[in-house]
Amino acid sequence: MNALHSDVAIIGGGLSGLTLAYRLESIGRSVRLFEGRTRLGGRIHTLYPPDGPSLEMGATWLGRKHTALWDLLEELNVEVFEQRHERIALFQPGARSAVQGIHLPAGEPPSYRIRGGSDTLIQALNLRLRETDVRTGCAVTGLRRGVDGVEILTDKGLFTATTVVSTLPPDLLVRGVDLAPALPRELTDLARQTDTWMGRSIKVALTYNHPFWRENGRSGTFFSNAGPVTEMYDHSNAADDVYALKAFADPRLSELSPDRRRQRVVEQLVGVYGPAAGRYTDYRETPWAAEPFTTHPAAADLLPHQNQGHALFRRPFWDGHLWLAGTETATAFPGYMEGAVRSAEWTAARLRQ
Q1: What is the CATH class of 1-44+119-198+300-353?
Q2: Which residue from 272, 274, 327, 320 is spatially nearest to 100, judged by alpha carbons?
Q3: Pairing of strands 202-208, 282-287
Q4: Whole-number Å distance between alpha carbons of 120 and 123
Q5: pTM to 2 decimals?
Q6: Which of 37, 85, 86, 128 has the smallest CB count inside 10 Å?
Q7: What are the tens digits of pLDDT across the range 133-150?
Q8: What top-level class would CATH report for the domain 47-117+200-290?
Q9: Burial label, 319 (beta-carbon count in 10 A; 0-12, 13-18, 19+)
Q10: pLDDT tens, position by position, 304-332
């Protein structure tokens, strides 16, 4: 058999793609996985500053209700820890409004983070892929339906597979990959109107030597109607001995330069917390709209989670030789890590048949 042929080719090396490869390899399928980035993880993206905590620029939290993800973490012996819970949050109603303290509801189920960073899960999956051909820095540019499978065009050459599974965001697949024959118009239109999870998010993290936000009745949990930071949480490590804040910034800030974005963020935090907020030891950010393997430049600005989980995404195409997977296609919790795992498990079950 052609050395460049596999039973299954998976497009995308994020949580869905790696989980699917792990399941298929375990039942003896030959698998090749293509990831356009030079790293694995997709929208799980953990940074590791030399002297600070791991910083999540992508997927971060899980809960007990996320049963598929929880089961996978236990299977892989990946530990979690409870997100620090604040009794109050700071709220900024408007740019000229005084910051208020608001009490958070009691009895809410806790959120958890992955010990060592969400990337720990990605590395655990990758380490268990003994036979899968994982190719990073290899972007799929086209798919061609063949007589007995699919030709896969990449920027590193031509490959073939009996079955292809795309775990790309649906919008990115139909806009960014040349497909022949074209997918049904109904699917293409739906994909273009499906929100890409985190597609326009801007994640920001600042590290500090001291958690000043825990003093004087303040809180690391912060919400603002004014921006540029709209939502923020304590992001210190599991041992609680290195400290950070992690925030979501207004997506419209993607139009600014990185330096100007940082200036705006720091000015706001200093205005809320005082001079201590300006004495950060590290500042990191990820504007996801600038990530070409997440968001297509022509992507529409849609409502959060719009059309995610639509039943059409779970139909086979090209006589069963092409499938769509990934968190946007999941029947439950689409747009979250749980959705990514559920989609992979569902797809693996169909391909076993």
Answers
A1: alpha beta
A2: 272
A3: antiparallel
A4: 5
A5: 0.96
A6: 85
A7: 999 999 999 999 998 899
A8: alpha beta
A9: exposed
A10: 999 999 999 999 999 999 999 999 999 99
